[in-house]
Amino acid sequence: MKEFEIAQKIGKELTDSDLREAAAKALGIRPEQVGQVKVVRRSVDARQEILYRYRVQACRCSETLEPFTVAPYLDVHQATPVVVVGAGPAGMFAALTLLQRGLKPIVLERGKDVERRKVDMARLSLEGVLNPDSNYCYGEGGAGAFSDGKLYTRSSKRGDIREVLYQLVSFGASPDILIDAHPHIGTDRLPEVVKNIRRCIEDHGGEYHFDSRVTDIVPVSDGFQVYCGKTIFKASKIILACGHSARDIYELFAAKGWALEAKGFALGVRVEHPQWLINQIRYHGKYQPFMPTAEYSFVQQVDERGVFSFCMCPGGILVPSSTEDGTVVLNGMSNAARNSKWANSGIVVQIEPGDQPDGYHGPFALMDFQRDVERAMYTWAQEHGAKHPFTAPAQRMKDFCRGIVSKDLPKTSYHPGALTAPLHELLPQHVALRLRRALPQVDRSMHGYYTNDALLLGVESRTSSPIRLPRNPETLEHVDVPGLYPCGEGAGYAGGIVSSAMDGINVAKAVVCK
Length: 514
Prior knowledge:
It is a single chain. The protein has helices spanning 16-27, 89-100, 114-127, 162-170, 190-203, 247-256, 275-282, 365-383, 397-402, 423-426, 429-442, 497-513, and strands at 2-9, 34-45, 51-60, 81-85, 104-108, 207-209, 216-220, 223-228, 231-235, 238-240, 261-262, 265-274, 299-302, 305-313, 316-320, 330-334, 342-351, 392-396, 418-420, 455-460, 467-468, 484-486. It is of the alpha+beta class. The chain starts with a strand and ends with a helix.
């Protein structure tokens, strides 16, 4: 087997003949002696001429390329039950892994199924009516189901990510995610993938229970009783994949005296540019409509803290991501085609325990700080004439960095609307000052990025959980509660769809091995 790279102009079809000729050259044989040829990675190279670069594996006719296979799902109608709290990426892939290992997942989701969830999200954006259990964070599929479906994690430290990608393809995602350097599914396609996962779990004997917010967890002699109001579910083990905003779960742990601790997260703004501008910047003025919609990322260090782009959504829109009234939180999303007029990204500052002002203490210090910033955005907007409960305070980029309140604002994709505001004063000062220093510097590598045509909206605060539920590094059980397995973003062990899914897989394997 030989692995090699080839380049091809974007817009020109890469044929099987092209691949086999390149494989023959790499292997030092004639084309007719080439056996299997497989593209394993594709990326855009816009440094000079705009190219696709392909990484390819090939072998001789006498050899074979080892295929990747997904373990079969077993019938678990009569198997031992395991409660899985949460139907986001960690919970879904934990449940699928339990099926593969012969255990019965009972999935408890505080929100609604993905179709009914869409209705609640529409009411949130259009009418300002928030369902605290069914919104852009809560519900089937989790927060990632309505934020573009980016699958950027390529780290192998958690295991083989093909376990996630190949299963997603089997449930309806495009096979392109298996090879793209920056794969994504798209908000318009993810709901069907999520539904197919649920159908698989139910068809094999697993259970889903929606509108089932966990209100208590009680250890008993043979495992646990999990309360969802008056309904009780019994299981010997629990996988807790509650998501990064489940404050009530953290409060339950605190009330029971179970360990939890403050964890760093990131906080900042959502930045929206015209997509045509990002296209021109990233493709150095050579963008053509047949090229992939351009995206960007950056990381800088300012005063010993990272300032970085987060959850960049090319050709996307901004959405309200609050989980409780009286707060303003933003996120971004893109459909598969990434064809809106705007590009948006979180631009956030690393926050570590101790960075918060005086008056915040204990494991909830950063979560309380996070909530207070979200409330400050809401209060300012409502006191200054907001017409929608989730109107976002906003400022043009250069005005923000210069400390000037914008006289007017550019058009935005954010449906609840934006209100010109002194974001440079509303944000915590250590956050605002780092952003004001970092944004002009981005222009050095992306000339044109620093512009008053870009809009900053506050606040982007749900980058990850500001609390961690500590677990035994060997068994992955909570340090105080044997048989309870925290996982995913809500437990503080992942960030994003793929890393959350991998953590769910690993925890489910630990459950089986215990």
